[in-house]
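Running log. JK asked me to keep both predictions on one page so they can be read side by side. First protein, sequence followed by its tokens:
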Amino acid sequence: MKRYGLFINGEWTHALQGEFYEVTNPATGEIVGVCADGDEGDVERAVSAAHQAFPVWANRTARERADILRRSYELIVSHKDELGEIMTLEQGKPLAEAYAEVQYAADFVEWSGEEAKRIYGETIPASSPDKRIWVHKQPVGVAAAITPWNFPASMITRKIAPALAAGCPVIIKPAEQTPLTACRLVELFQEAGVPKGVINLITSTRAPSVGSAMLADERVRKIGFTGSTEVGKILMKQAADTMKKVSLELGGHAPFIVFADAELDRAADEVIASKFRNAGQTCVCANRIYVEESIGNAFAERLAQRAKKLKMGNGLEKDVSIGPLIDGNAADKVEGQVKDAINKGAEVIAGGHRHTKVGKNPGEKAHFFEPTVLLQVTDEMEIMQEETFGPVAPIQFFNSEEEVVKKANNNRYGLAAYFYTQDLARAIRVAEGLEFGIVGVNDGAPSTAQAPFGGFKESGLGREGGKYGVEEFLETKYISVNIK
């Protein structure tokens, strides 16, 4: 069991108050680590270190920054098994998913490092022969990253790798439930040669006060956050006081549309992969399954058969597909949505039950929910209006393209959407008509390090990934030179 302090100015140190907190395995309730519990004073220390490191890091050449990120990538990949096991212990996801996430996290580091060498300016034709117009890109300054528990590695690297590539020092505040992955990643970045003060880590159970301290400090010029829309709105309001740049990746309620001409087996496999990955605890997972009525029952049967075959248990055990929900509150929410749907007429055709003990797990504190498929779902049910963040697939039938696109868009969220069809013309129409930042056409897993990730409407602002993610950490400076 590892014990970590805070990482500030290149050193591991105690929190000012000297406090620690325990990290538990959500599958067993067992303590798997201990982390320092930082507060506002620790944020001030971290911001000061990052602010002091900013000019030094920004003045490093693009190649120097890229080389450090390349070494970081190689270290993360070489420690994939170790990082994956840490992640499963503190977050619960199956090991295979954890290993895949580590690679995904490393991909952001690799891609961002390569983009560091491609931050270009411009020369614009002037209106006078005596003038020259240059456009210069430079790093915005100290950046803060507040990350969630559902993807403890990739949500960190998706934020800090482009920041480092652009020349910005960072302060990381990981979710209190999953700090151990963050701590080990920071150790690897340090080993790769990141200078002191360029990466700082504050672990804490005091998320509101720590976040507010970051936002109140005018030396922090950029905030990146992944989490709920409600918290995102609070952070955006606080950021306005010092006019910080913000990137917010917030809630989602993804529709998955299956048209009658789709390959049903392939579509069913993709729904399973999208909906039940990480026990449904992903912001882009399928939340509303819309199936054309003529194939509705046939598709529902395929989905239910597949859901029943998924093995639930401790993510460290062999062949487990569904790990625990992160805590009791998460399980309560899923259970509440299922009960609400049943009370309003939904039919359970797979799963439907909550468990506290599964397989060899000894802990009563563990919270599992069976992979569940619901039929006869209506718009009045809570599960069709709010993000579930659990392993429940509600199915609703539709009769026309126009109807289903309207239903898919009739929601405050606009992060990801998916649909299956073999009709090219329909594919173009529907892809353009869906009001979402990410659209998967016959693709249930479109996320990749080089593409822009982000949403419309109340699903957030800004984009992460590829060159788009690096641009979020740059300021555009217009320089006009009179040469007369």
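And the second, directly underneath as requested:
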Amino acid sequence: MTHYKVEVTRDGKWWMVSIPALDGLTQARRISEAEQMARDYIAVTTDTRIEDNTVTMHLDVEGVPASERADRIRIDRAEAARLEARALAEAKALAHDLAEQGVPVRDIGAILGVTFQRASQLVNS
């Protein structure tokens, strides 16, 4: 499997897809099509199968480092999901512990900052 770095820029209504290793250029109407267009170009140019080539796209729009910023957003979202899962597990554990001590569900909700209905779900999960 061969890996290629691809540079994607905006030109009017088109996305220009440059494959520097092959000194190649193709275009796509939508950014969602850019990777496939690059892989198609690579396969035709190198006489290989499309699935034998992978690409890493670097997106730059008028000096805005979109790839880097989008990567950071993905990392932040993954971290947020991890923290949310950890908070949910801890909320369930605390709700169970408080319920075992006879604390009313409404009070558990107040302690956790959730509605009593959500506290009930946590206690019963």
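Observation for JK regarding the second prediction: The chain is about 55% helix and 25% strand.
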